[in-house]
Amino acid sequence: MLSDPLVLALLGTGFSFLGTAAGAAMVYLLKKDVNVSLNRAFMGFASGVMIAAAVWSLMLPALSMAQEQGMAPWAPAAAGFLFGGVFLFALDKLMPHLHAGSDRPEGLSSSFKRTTMLVLAVTLHNIPEGMAVGLSFALAAREGSSVTLAGAAALALGMALQNFPEGAAISLPLRKEGFSRTKAFAWGAMSGIVEPVAGVLGVVLALTIVHVMPYMLSFAAGAMIYVVIDELVPSAYNEHSNAGTLAAMVGFVLMMILDLALG
Q1: Which of 99, 219, 224, 231 could share a disulfide with 80, CB 3.0–4.6 Å?
Q2: Quick one: which H or E segment has residue 249?
Q3: Are 14 and 198 in contact (CB under 8 A)?
């Protein structure tokens, strides 16, 4: 049962979802918002983790798989990567959402409550992360794959670590909006539920059409890089911030070590 790609994907994305829930639980420990410098460090760390994951856990396996299938390695990697960015760009423009600390909603005009749009902002980030973890576990379950189960677990751990500040970025503002701590935690935790859904859907598609796996891996990488450049970097560097820069380097190195040491 534990060799079933769908089961592995569900377990892996479930673990990364727990990172979001743990971050949301900070609403029980903190009475006010996270310090600005610390928040920049969190965003910088998350960007470093995601960049490293996009390269080592997604793009390199995509190139390797494409070559094994007799394709020009760069073709599916480039196509999937660009489509992943375009997909997130389209969601960003269409889905109503509101980033923490901002008063101006993005996406199409809607009657959604402010709290709903705050949750949707983090949900956008979690779609590619869930796909990345799910696909890595599906790839690890294949015989002769260059991705090991330990490597997929390392990616899940990395995503869980960078999900922690995202959970807090939902629950703490909701608490300021007047929500009880329990309700703010619940909303913050549930913002990560899209990760198991995206992970399982990605695996189902990849297993149904075997040659699509290199495209799917590159798609997840492109979507993650879009999130990093469009959302995380501006949050970490809206003013000159050594904290964000150093944290990004630490996150990148940590994710690289996890992937290479365990993969």
Answers
A1: 219
A2: helix 242-262
A3: no
Query: How far, in Å, CA of 223 to CA of 195, rounded?
Result: 14
Residue pLDDT, tens place only, 15-63: 999 999 999 999 998 766 667 777 788 888 889 999 998 998 899 989 9
Q: Between the CA of residue 122 and those of 115, 167, 196, 204, 244, what are the distances in Å?
A: 12, 8, 14, 24, 19
Confidence at residue 241, expressed as pLDDT on a 0 to 100 scale: 63
Contacting residues for 98 by C-beta, under 8 A, at least 6 apart: 104, 105, 106, 114, 117, 118, 120, 121
Q: How far apart are CA 142 and CA 227, in angstroms?
A: 29
Count how many Cα atoms sit within 13 Å of the Cα of residue 182 in the half-sphere of its side chain: 0
For residue 83, give both structure tokens. 């489509």
Under 8 Å between Cβ of 17 and 159? no
Q: Are the C-beta atoms of residues 84 and 223 closer than 8 Å to each other?
A: yes
Cα 30 to the chain's mean position, in Å? 24
pLDDT digits (tens, 9 = 90+) for 215-248: 989 999 999 999 998 888 887 776 666 788 888 8
| Closest C-alpha among 85, 99, 114 to residue 238 | 99
Cα distances from 127 to residues 17, 35, 186, 191, 224, in angstroms, run 11, 27, 19, 10, 9
Number of alpha helices (DSSP H) and beta strands (DSSP E) in the chain: 11, 0
d(CA 45, CA 49): 6
CA distance 114 to 97: 8
Q: What does the alpha-carbon distance between residue 226 and residue 86 come to, in Å, rounded to a whole number?
A: 9
**Cβ neighbours of 111 (radius 10 Å):** 6
